[in-house]
């Protein structure tokens, strides 16, 4: 399986330099990350929302080594919120944040990440939108969930992400599937050891369905993060059986992947949110997109061969 190899490469400085230097890389990266600045991304936001889609915006970047970088990450999100305020799109555009980008891995990182993310959540609420805390590797999750719980005291609409491939996730889902919660379910895109996570695709898919059922049958708002047609169909069936209306859950997919499916689901009346990343520190995000789906890797390799 190439996925684990690619995920290992996402942490390699040597591979980062090699792939970043390849002439074709920017062309392929642009498929998944359509801009480096807020100004780059505004036309994308306008175009997608005009088509009936909603968005969650991610300023890419995870390898934070100083408190100053964490502060800069906070300020990047605040600048994004200023632009969203001008666009007056309300809940059609929310934000996703990785707490590692706010300093979670530094000394005193839990408190630092909370202090940095709180003003972003406050500013988002002030313009009628919200923030979802992305899940990262399993060692960070207790801190993420604690920060999520703390933020929800003042901003109950704050969402979080859970990952189906982790053994702990069914218990997390039961705890989180309460009234007022917003939970995005994804398969998982980090290299995790066999002691904490399922390793085989069929095991992960089965776990995804088990967790999805918990969320859909619960009282919260499920956000279904998948491009898998079979899982999307299962989600629709579970939602129907649970008596959920179309505005009581949503689908989420990545920018650059299955764009026609985004439009199809929106045309059927589903809430369809496109996870749209931008920024200059794209490497880790890009490599996980390659690892998640063989078709993404084939696309990249074909582009390198054709342009080589």
UniProtKB/TrEMBL annotation:
Cofactor(s) the record lists: FAD
Keyword tRNA-binding: no
Pathway(s) per entry: Amino-acid degradation; L-proline degradation into L-glutamate; L-glutamate from L-proline: step 1/2
SUPFAM superfamilies to which the protein is assigned, alphabetical: FAD-linked oxidoreductase
Protein name per Swiss-Prot or TrEMBL: proline dehydrogenase
Catalyzed reaction equations: L-proline + a quinone = (S)-1-pyrroline-5-carboxylate + a quinol + H(+)
EC number: 1.5.5.2
Pfam families noted in UniProt: Pro_dh
Enzymatic class: oxidoreductase
Parts of the chain that traverse the membrane: none
Keywords carried by this UniProt record: FAD, Flavoprotein, Nucleotide-binding, Oxidoreductase, Proline metabolism
Native source species: Streptomyces incarnatus
InterPro entries membership: FAD-linked_oxidoreductase-like, PRODH_bac_arc, Proline_DH_dom, Proline_oxidase
Proline dehydrogenase domain boundaries: 45-299
